[in-house]
Design brief:
The chain is mainly alpha-helical. 56% of the residues lie in helices and 0% in strands. The protein has five helices and no strands. The longest helix has 15 residues.
């Protein structure tokens, strides 16, 4: 058993010296990465186009759009309610 531990320890040291080894202690950004689309720009292509593109996104992507553009939305919403929140905000202010 001791030999096995030493073998893993040596493998870890060799792997961590490899030029492609990344620093795993680097801090991650606190803020979410930007939105995957600009709802105001897509709205220029038509309301149906925006709705179609929003419905294809995950709840996480919809949340990022909401956060990035300061759109009011329920704290706990599903894809449908978040899509409607974005649609409503874009309709009321069609230019960003």
């Amino acid at each position: 058993m001791i030999e096995r531990i030493h073998t893993f320890d040596g493998a870890f040291r060799r792997a961590s010296r490899h030029p492609d080894a990344r620093d795993r202690t680097a801090p991650r950004p606190a803020a979410p990465v930007g939105a995957v689309l600009n709802p105001y720009a897509v709205y220029g292509e038509g309301e149906d186009m925006l709705r179609t593109k929003l419905q294809a996104l995950s709840v996480g992507h919809l949340r990022k759009i909401i956060d990035a553009y300061g759109i009011a939305a329920p704290a706990r919403g599903n894809r449908t309610t978040l899509t409607e929140s974005i649609m409503s905000a874009v309709r009321s202010r069609p230019a960003a």
